Each structure stands twice: as structure tokens, then as C-alpha cells.
């Protein structure tokens, strides 16, 4: 009886936690073809992965603003932002490291401004996909 109870507890625990917290890395999602779809990428001639990468680069360039205080203090460097596109298609910043905190704040602002998109899907279930993006701040001359 105790063995049966133990087996049932383990079985129900694994079922209740199965795939709810699943997050794929960008590389794994790209390999499996389950990347999030950036707005208007569904009509693109590019693959969803190519379109996502291009739109992300464009988004960073268009939204980039060198912080005034960082300019005044001569700050430069590379900030790496780790984030996910969650199961609802929204951005969640997980970690930021590198360079000065003023530059980190700007990098976070840029990433948080990413538009809501169609989340990656595993079969028919939405899934979170993790990304890591370096943003380099070079002080203008």
C-alpha cells in the first residue's frame, strides 16, 4: 500500500509540473522551428527565425538612445540582456550584466519595448523562448 501511494504521489507530481515551466533556448527553438513570430513576420518571405533576428536588430537600432549621463561620464561597454518571450508573447527580462548601470538601464528599456508577438509553440501549446542579446555602447566622438 505504501509503495502504491508513493508511486501515485510521484506520478501526479510529475504530471502537474510537466511542461508548464518549459523554456527553450533560442538555439533549440530555432532548430525545432518553434520560434516566436514577430508582428508582420507571418507574411514575410524569410523564415520566422530570419525575420525575428532582422526585426530584433532593427528594433535595437531604431530605439537606441545613448544615455546623456553616460555620455557626460564617458561610459561605454557591452551590456548583455537575457530575456524570454513568454507564453503570452510578451517580453520578460531575466538578467542584465556588463558595463555600467546607466547603460544597463538603457539596454533594459530597449528590450522591454519589444512588441507583443505570437509566442513560440510546441505542437499547439504556447511555450516560452529564452534569448541573450549583447548591446554595445560606443561613445560617439
TrEMBL record:
Topology in the lipid bilayer is annotated as:
Single-pass membrane protein
Q: Its principal location? A: membrane
What Pfam families has UniProt attached to this entry? TonB_C
Q: Which GO terms describe its biological process?
A: protein transport; transmembrane transport
Per UniProt, subcellular location reads as: Cell inner membrane
Instruction: Tell me the InterPro entries matching this sequence.
Output: TonB-dependent_transducer, TonB/TolA_C, TonB_C
Q: Which PANTHER family match?
A: PROTEIN TONB, PROTEIN TONB-RELATED
**Name the record gives this protein:** TonB family C-terminal domain-containing protein
Upper lineage: Bacteria, Pseudomonadati, Bacteroidota, Flavobacteriia, Flavobacteriales
Amino acid at each position: 500500500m505504501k509503495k502504491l501511494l508513493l508511486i501515485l504521489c510521484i506520478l501526479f507530481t510529475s504530471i502537474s509540473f510537466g511542461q508548464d515551466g518549459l523554456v527553450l533556448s533560442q538555439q533549440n527553438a530555432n532548430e525545432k522551428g518553434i520560434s516566436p513570430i514577430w508582428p508582420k513576420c507571418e507574411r514575410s518571405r524569410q523564415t520566422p527565425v530570419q525575420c525575428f533576428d532582422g526585426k530584433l536588430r532593427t528594433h535595437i537600432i531604431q530605439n537606441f538612445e545613448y544615455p546623456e549621463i553616460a555620455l557626460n561620464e564617458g561610459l561605454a561597454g557591452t551590456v548583455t540582456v537575457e530575456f524570454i518571450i513568454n507564453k503570452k508573447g510578451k517580453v520578460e527580462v531575466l538578467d542584465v550584466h556588463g558595463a555600467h548601470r546607466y547603460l544597463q538601464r538603457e539596454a533594459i528599456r530597449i528590450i522591454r519595448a519589444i512588441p507583443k508577438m505570437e509566442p513560440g509553440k510546441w505542437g499547439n501549446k504556447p511555450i516560452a523562448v529564452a534569448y541573450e542579446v549583447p548591446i554595445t555602447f560606443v561613445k560617439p566622438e
